Description:
Order of helices and strands: EHEHEHEHEEHEEHEEHEHEHHHEHH
Helix content: 40-55%
Strand content: 5-15%
Number of strands: 13
Strand order of the largest sheet: 3-2-1-4-5-7-11
CATH architecture of one domain: 3-Layer(aba) Sandwich
Largest sheet: 7 strands, parallel
Distance between the termini: 46 Å
Low-confidence stretches: none
CATH superfamily of one domain: NAD(P)-binding Rossmann-like Domain
Shape: globular
Mean pLDDT: 92
Amino acid sequence: MTTLEIIDRPILMTGFPGFLATHLVEELAQRTEASLDLLVLASEMAQATRRLETLTRRHPSLEGRARLVRGDITREHLGLSSSDYDRLRGSVGVVWHLAAIYDLAVPRDVAFKVNVGGTRQVLDFCESCKELDRLNYVSTCYVSGDRRGTFREDELDLGQGFKNHYEETKFWAEVEVQRRSAEIPTAIFRPGITVGDSRTGATEKFDGPYYVFGLLERLPEWMPIPNVGRGEAKVNIVPIDVLVAALAALGHEAGNEGQVFQLADPNPMRSRDIIERTLEHMGRSPAVGSVPESLVEKALANARLESWTGVPQEALAYFNHPAHYDTRQANAALARHGIEFPHLSFYLPTLLDAFARRDEA
Length: 361
């Protein structure tokens, strides 16, 4: 096998102590020897301190090379102190930009301020860096918006609309990143819906399909459970352990500048099959018939019913929207590292077991 050239330069990462950033720091602790500066909001510094202490206990190599730096991506110079700004722009070789508001119900002005405005500030910082080798920008497959059918890695603006302000602002943020990629060496990553570890099921982020798991768990056993719509849409789910392995491998591999990688399951399961496997694992009767999607969306518009089901109205679309994400470029690149996304059927029972144990001490 050809030896791959690795970029092992000082790192600045946004988004810590968030779910994805935390797992990526842990992965990078094992894959690189680089220093890591983690940009943290003042309001999250206490949580970030505890989280970094936990990571350092698990990975002693982080001692002395991972540090928290106070900042805010929505402000000029990333809200850094003058000394931190000068130090980082003179030393950073790799920027990981993960910080964003991921809430599907986020107000539009807030989403634009953080997801678009914050990304512009990160781009400005990257342009000011003296030794930058790479900006690794974490986008989302859902820049595809309401497009149906196959969405390719070399596609972005196809005149699509958007299901929520999260999608819209991540789209405009990626537009900005691609627009400035001639001046800033950039790799773009578009993950799917992220769930727990494929080996252990561990997660602290119970959204996406977990809303559905929770609803199926709460419904009385005597109640017949229908599918929502035809259930033919394929659901784009990836486990956090394989996702961060993919990010770390491709994000620090030289030569990936100018590339877009859709980090999605190449063979996603249909929503009705996920429901079927989940009910079977829970010892429940199979789903019977179906309820029109429009009727369920209308019902979830009632705040009281939405609260009772535990399923946000905005989340339903991701189980029923007929979009497929082409991953040929990502698959070829990951094959160089021996990484591939497992089929959901292999680790769904592990996710469900961990979900059932979520409230245990």
